[in-house]
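Researcher: Structure for this, please.
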Amino acid sequence: MDSVGATARTPRNELTRWKSYRDEEELPLLPVGAAKAVVIAEDDAASDKYFKVGLYGLVNAIILVPLMISFAQIIFRDPVFQPFLSELVKLTMVSGAVHQLCFSLSSTMPFAVGQVQDAGLIFLSAMATSIVTILKEIPGGVSMEDVLSTTLWTLCGSTAALGVALIFTGKLNLASFVQYLPMPVVGGYLSFIGFYCFEAGLSMMASKEITSILDWPRLADTKSIVLCAPGVLGGIFLFVMTQRIRHFAALPTCMLSILVVFYSGMLLSGSSFEDARRFGWIAPLPNGTLSVSDIYKHFHLELFHPEVITPQIPTWIAMYFVVAFSSSLDVAAIEMALHKPLDHNAELQTVGWSNLVSGLTGGFTGSYIFSSTIFSMKSGVDSRWTGGLIFALEIALVLSPFSIIAYVPKLFFGSLNALIGIDLVMEWIVHAKKSMLWAEYAILWFTFLIMNFWNLEAGIVLGIAAAGINFILSYVESTVVRRISRQSLVKRDLRERALLFQVRSAIVMLELDGFVFFGSSVAILNQVRKHITTSDVLERSFVHVPTVRTRFLILDFERVRGVDVTAVRSCFTATKEHLTAHGITLVFAALPSAVRGMFDLHDLLAQSSVFDTMEMAIEWCEDTLLQMNGATPILDQMQYHFAKGQVTPLLESFLPPPLTDDARLSDDLVAQYFVTSFEPAGKRIYESGDEVHGVYLVGKGHVDVYVPRDVHEHMGFEGRKRIVRVTNGAWLGDVDMVLNNRHNLTAETKSPCFLFYLDRAALASMREAHPHLAARFDNAMLQSMAMWIMESHGTEALLERRALRRTADQESSCRSCVLSLVASKFQILVWSSMSSNSSAQWNDDRDGVLIEGFHAQVVAGMHKGRSSGSGGLKKDGWHNLLKFFNSTLGLNYQKSQLQSRWTILKKRHAIFKMLKMNPDFAWDPEHNLPVASQATWNEFAAKYPDALQYRSAPLNFFAELDAILSGDVVPGDNNDSSDTEDEAPRKAGRKRAPMDLLNAPMVKASRMDALVHAESSLSSTASPHHHLAPRQSLANHHAAVAAQQLHDTTVGPPTPLERALKTFFLLAHHLPPRKKLQFSQFLASGHENTVVLFNCIDDETKWQLINDVLAKDP
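Model: Predicted structure, token format:
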């Protein structure tokens, strides 16, 4: 990851969009004059391109070269390397140049910047320090050349090995695997990098060995404080300025200002470079000038000590994971900035090749520099020459005969180290607290402290272990077993369904989720014991469903991804023994093959029932439960009638008992109204889309009702979807029959079936000739659909309604409305089995009507509180709002849906208002959007994640919501000029009409005038004998013309005024044109709330208002 995340930020409004170098287009042939213009434009574009390449390449080099020098001082921070630091610094710069060359040549991004990176240098520093310690312990000692040679060969070899490992990781498509490193551990490591860089800066500036926080007392003397304080203040200065000034030149300018201040101080004090070196401000001069050969003069293979390799292996493994992880994060960050997908495995291979070449040339680990790469991309640089310029400048400094650190003050590099430290610590110690759970944040601190007080490898290993323990504890505490309440998709005879409803609680269904392991075994066993009932219970549950002794326990394994052997023995074996002791059958559903094999090995499936799907398991349990509770005589009775060929008694057994003699069936009536048939298995009864001509009753057999394969696959699923299985004594196609729809589903016989068919025309004839008999069939269908709803929701209201005895006339009169209500609910339940998305749908039009109606309720005084709608509405207010909303839009929403949407709108208003009032956000008045930097957005979104939607789209109706929620709407302020004192008593008796006002600009006068003129012209140009035409015909004619004119003159949804005018024209079609124009002008010129109330009141009150206005006409 990138430690200089704050070093290259560019304002968004000054950035140009990056265009891929692959998307070049050929120019068409142009005339000669145009060709000359094109040549001039191309020359200007080329000069601008080269200017950008030079400018941004130079800026990146100014930032990166000092960083490479600081990184070299961090890698070789051990005091034994200080005399050789000039050569080692240039070796680090060579490594940075090699990385840049590799990325410029091989990266898919032409603007890529790659250098020695902070993610790996801490490990290299740990290796270097470890090698020095090991070689010092060798008896007899070793020379400094041995130390240098062994250290350099080990570091460059580790870098090359890292490159090979990264290449293979990318080749094997394992880039996602290395990202499994827990983020708190990575955060602790990056915090340690920051702290480590800060310590390295202090050690360099004070020229003292500072390896841990325990060594800080060595800096307590006056000279150390004098040497370190300017560098620390310089780092704080750089951090603050880069945070406050969002410009790409901010960091280079601040860095140069530190040098200017230092050299100006030397000039004013009369100090020379020698004086500064003697005091410790600047590093001493090397022995003689440096040549290219001096950089590699310490690589002596014969002086290498191989015994140091083994202790570095754990460090190298940790370095591999951290560098791979951080490189993947860098690629992901670049991908997000590009708005273009990148191949993570390919990019990881690029990083691998770069490290391999760097290691082979004696260099160190590196990767993408995220901030510099994004900086170049957003600056519009799409040329590889930018990277080439950085490479050339670094090589030029390497070839120079002087040592940079012998002339640049230590406090300059100390300031950069302090900047890196402050940036990383602020990001991962301070700000990360807002984006992590407390347990994850504790792991971050734990990793950070272990790395500081013990060692780097232990911090990573123990941090990963702590993250694993936290995961186990969190996983155990999460709900891995849930009780579910479902019924089988089988539609049975009404008597069987009533019996099953009484004893269904004997089937307990538990759904397991995730990986069942030793940690979750106890929780699952406790849940099983909690939900089963081992003795007969007579009381009723809270939903008035009888509770009986548990007979079956179904465990649904559809969401289970695996089971370990400990869970098999400690959980499922113990569960089976407990259930067997109480006579409860254990049923397994949807067992994965691996889990089933594990259960077989432990004989867990013996004497247990296993089914492929949950539906099959529930169906088997229900069938068995019916047999256990006396359903067999019902089936035997049906079989007896069928075997004897007694069709009439068979059909009679499926109907409610007759209340009168003329409601009984006879063979003649069955032959008159019904068609009976035997159908083989696999026969299509009807298909989806067929017209509904009648209804079926299954006398014997099974019929599957399903979503056809083509429809189901179009919805994104595979194969066909069975919705319900209709069995003996159940109705088929009754919902479609009641709703007069085409068939929504397809019905096909599953087994040989005997069917009764009642045609629509035959049912209508039965209602006329035999109304009491028809009422039995209507009641049977009503009971069937009502039972289905009751089974699905566990309510008792419909069961009690079924017990009510009504006369045949009463049943006939209420049949249509009740059946329509139940059938609609039934259809919703059917389709909800395929899609769980049954919530209300909202758009701008519906939001506008909701806000309009809410405003009207506040005006009418139906709100809670004194003068604002922030407290919500009273009960009558919500009732009126619901009526207005549904009537305006032609919907059938519930009050709870409106209340839920209003809560969402209030939350959105609060967030949007905070954005408008936040001083850190500017405002774009043209697009009505907040504007801020990425850091400001990130900080605000950490508290309010929903705010991110307002980066690209404003909150519609903000002004209207703000008026309501801020108390600007005053109850009763309708500005009705007709409300005189004399008329107040008369108007007080009117029905109050709360609703309607979208606090938006009124419709333009041209649109209103066109609408009024069209209506008035229609009436004035009518033929003289129009008064002889029927009034309803004239009303229909006026309504059609007004609606067409409204459609032609309106763009978008109608405004409140347009709806009011349209309503008025339809209502007052018989008035003369002058009267229509008079009242239309009253609506258009009056206060907005006048239009609101007119839209809400009933027709009688509308006429009172119309008469009041027209009565004032002189």
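Researcher: Any notable elements?
Model: The domain at 478-629 is CATH 3.30.750.24 (Transcription Regulator spoIIAA). The chain has five domains: 43-177+199-312+323-424, 478-629, 634-798+817-828, 844-966, 1061-1113.
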